[in-house]
Specification:
alpha+beta; eight-stranded mixed β-sheet
């Protein structure tokens, strides 16, 4: 664990989806008045998708397809829909309620974290592309799209060129809040999504229409991992400098 400007920075490396989510849950459960704000970085030991606390994933994912591609599923301690973690950069932030960074207004907490994500994305892209926080939800293309984070931009999401860069889910308690975020780096292969999604839905087209992956459609493994390292450095910079 490292400390930067009053923050704890934790990188737990590569683990299962279940263990990554359990660690995040412990961050929230163990917040107290003496806790520092914490940023948690982690990777996935296999293809993984996480889903919100109240979501039944097999209402929206084909069980046979999930088993065929070896997709791990893990329940998040936060809400929200389903997020694929094969092509993204994942992170979490835990803020104690005693911190001046904490707000009783949930949307303000989203705005605070996503402003740092916005600044990170702009700097990563060389400040050459406009980015902003949207103020209203986009309309879902169908009911399934409401359960896939990158298929429907919602209030205070970060958008670039009219499409969503990052998704997030939060849980707030008396102790503070936990924010679990994802930044899109690559477009998911359509053939992969077709194996795990029901063919009657519009999720795939919605993801392609509404997502702006920072690396575009293709990147080498070296470029992918290099981008993750750069985004981690920039996110630390912009989160710990937010007031």
């Amino acid at each position: 664990m490292n400390r930067v400007s009053g923050w704890n920075i934790i990188d737990t490396g590569t683990d299962s989806g279940y263990n990554n989510m359990a660690f995040d849950a412990s961050l929230l459960a163990n917040l107290d008045n003496s806790s520092r704000p914490t940023i948690h970085f982690y990777e996935w030991q296999a293809d993984c998708a996480t889903y919100g606390y109240f979501v039944d994933p097999f209402t929206f994912l084909r069980k046979d397809g999930v088993e065929k591609v070896g997709l791990q599923l893990a329940k998040r301690p936060t809400g929200g829909g389903i997020i694929f973690h094969l092509w993204d950069f994942a992170f979490s932030v835990a803020i104690p309620s005693a911190s001046y960074l904490f707000s009783e207004n949930t949307l303000e907490n989203y705005r605070f974290i996503n402003q740092a994500v916005l600044n990170t994305a702009k700097e990563f892209m060389g400040n050459s592309t406009s980015a902003s926080l949207i103020v209203d939800d986009f309309l879902p293309k169908d009911i399934h799209c409401k359960r896939f984070c990158m298929a429907q931009p919602t209030k205070y999401d970060v958008i670039m060129c009219g499409r969503k860069i990052a998704g997030a889910a939060q849980r707030k308690t008396k102790k503070g809040f936990l924010h679990q975020g994802t930044i899109s780096l690559l477009f998911p292969p359509i053939e992969y999504l077709e194996k795990v999604l029901f063919p009657s839905t519009k999720v795939i087209s919605a993801m392609y229409e509404n997502t702006f992956p920072l690396l575009g459609a293709k990147a080498s493994q070296d470029d992918f991992y290099s981008a993750k390292k750069e985004i981690q450095k920039l996110l630390i910079k912009h989160l710990t400098s937010e007031k």
